[in-house]
Amino acid sequence: MRSDLGFRIGTDSSKFPAPPDTDAAWLLEKAAKVGLEGVFFRSALELSPALDVGELRALREQADDLGLYLEVGAAKINPFAAPEAPEIRILGDGDYLLGIERIVAACAAAGIHEIWAATANYKFDLAGRLACDRYRTDVTWDDQLRATAKVMAQLAPVLRAHGSHLNIETHEEITTFELVRLVEEGGPDAFGITFDTANVLIRGEDPVAAARRVAPYTRQTHVRDGALFFTDEGLCRVLAPCGQGVIDWPALLSALLAAPRRALSIEGIMGRRFQLPIPLYDPLWHAGQPDMTTVEMAELVRLACGYEGAVERGERRSLASLAEPADDHEREQFVLDSVAHLRAVAEQIGG
Fold first, then answer.
1. Contact indicator for 195, 207 with CB cutoff of 8 Å
2. Is the pLDDT of residue 351 over 80?
3. In terms of Cα–Cα distance, which of 132, 151, 145 is closest to 181?
4. What's the whole-number mean pLDDT along residues 240-264?
5. pTM greater than 0.85 (yes/no)
6. What superkingdom does the record give (predicted)?
7. What are the angstrom distances between the C-alpha of 67 and each of 8, 62, 148?
8. Does some domain include residue 294?
9. Measuring CA to CA, which residue among 299, 205, 195 is closest to residue 255?
10. Contact 239, 198 (CB under 8 A)
11. Which residues touch 180 (CB under 8 Å, ≥6 apart)?
12. pLDDT grade, residue 2 (50/70/90)?
């Protein structure tokens, strides 16, 4: 049910609840049954552990028959994060870069050309700055960005040869400013951006302003909302269904009209909603983000004030409520509520 504006709304495979022993084919059927329009699989190995082109093509054809888009993920392309993905090195017979190249080639042979990637990791079970790879003490973030750019330069000829794009996510550790620079340097004919609407809050960015920055290069989108609360550190972000957080969805979707692809994959929740800090009172946090603007930071404060006011009026869930575990029913409802809201917004914009 593509909107008149070209938006297609699907789900992230890793965040959609599924019974044990189900596979990619089951999720494609389930997605179509509940009215979704596509599935993003976090790893191509979810579709075929052996990276078999025949298996990949069969799933792509199944998606086509169901009227679904099909997107897959590759790996982290920051070499300092590579040791945490040993399966990619194994796939390349010891060569991590070759492992990524084999994913690109196999997916392209199966007709899948939009491929997710990311730069680093966030350790959700750790507290403070060091949970984020941006603040590693053994290697600076600038060195990580330079190393990532070198890997991109090595992958670019392979991507161009296959007519594919590697789309780097606005993950928790990287800013949209940095991603735009990486993609412009690497070449938009080989690289794009996977825009995660809620992650940019962690980096002190206004989601609407962020959307406007990345839209010309956005080829995949991970969609969810965020609730903002004041804390002793500054603010915190907690995940929420689209329309139940702080994001101005009409403005954000309007910005994404400039995107070359408009597939929106709802990235839901696991058993928790990931309360992550935005440490506005930490000078080291500010020093590590030279592109951050006071205008966007002020907008986050305004949005947090508005959300907490809505909590006081009983219109939104409290921080204590959002800290409660989520069962499979609520996880699925997170996706379906988000889809309903985005479709209503798309219709509003189209009108």
1. no
2. no
3. 145
4. 97
5. yes
6. Bacteria
7. 10, 9, 35
8. no
9. 195
10. yes
11. 193, 213, 214, 217
12. low
- Rounded Cα distance between 99 and 96, Å, is 5
Residue 282 in any domain: the answer is: no
**Number of structural domains found in the chain:** 1
To the nearest whole number, what is the mean pLDDT of the chain?
Answer: 95
> What is d(CA 236, CA 243) in angstroms, rounded to the nearest whole number?
18
Would you say 59 and 70 are in contact if contact means Cβ atoms under 8 Å apart? yes
pLDDT over 90 for what percent of the chain? 87
165 domain-assigned: yes
SS3 163: coil
Tokens at 264, concatenated:
């929106």
In a domain, 73, yes or no: yes
Residue type, 234: G
Q: 């804390």: which residue's tokens?
A: 231
**Phi, psi for 189 (deg, rounded to 5):** -80, -10
Question: CA–CA separation, 251 vs 135, rounded Å?
Answer: 32
CATH of the domain at 152: 3.20.20.150
Size of the chain, expressed as the number of residues it contains: 351
- Which residues, in sequence order, are bridge partners of residue 264? 9, 221
DSSP category for residue 83: G
Domain that holds residue 30: 8-225+239-271+328-350
d(CA 193, CA 200): 13
SS3 category, 173: coil
Burial of 312 (0-12, 13-18, 19+ CB in 10 A): exposed
